[in-house]
Amino acid sequence: MTNIVKEKISLSDYIDFKNNESLYKNETQLNNELIKKKKEKELFNLSINEIINNFSKEFINMLNDIVYLIHNHYIKKDNNENIFQEIILILIKDERLIYLGIFFILLSFFFYFMDISN
User: Fold this and answer.
1) Which among 32, 48, 50, 59 counts the fewest CB atoms within 10 Å?
2) Where are the domains of the chain?
3) Are 96 and 58 contacting, i.e. CB atoms less than 8 angstroms apart?
4) Mean of all residue pLDDT scores within the chain
5) DSSP string of the chain?
């Protein structure tokens, strides 16, 4: 008979291993759910109504952030940061760039129809 020597594992090591294993499973499950939710929220998977709602929310948030930045810039005269860079950062934050593009497309249609009406 062959003798197989098994390493002795203490109970605390086994409990730590099981806890880590359960945490890993929970984390991977939560990560998979977050990936699924993110794919569902991609622009191509949204309905027109959701795009319009998201556009209005993001546009209002952009304007609020810009007004807040300008207000703070003029209150604090010692602020030497470049306000133009801060405005660019506000405009490209998260998914605002997509909705900013939609805004410029709508604005160009508006100017086009104004031009052809004259």
Assistant:
1) 48
2) 9-40, 47-112
3) yes
4) 83
5) ----PPPP--HHHHHHHHHHHHHHHHHHHHHHHHHHHHHHTSGGGS-HHHHHHHHHHHHHHHHHHHHHHHHHHHH-TT--S-HHHHHHHHHTSTTHHHHHHHHHHHHHHHHHHHHHH-
Amino acid type, 62:
M
In angstroms, the CA 86 to CA 65 distance is 10
3-state per-residue secondary structure call for 31-57? HHHHHHHHHHCCHHHCCHHHHHHHHHH
Q: What is the pTM of this model?
A: 0.61
Region for residue 47 given its phi and psi (left: phi exceeds 0; alpha: psi -120 to 50; beta: otherwise): beta
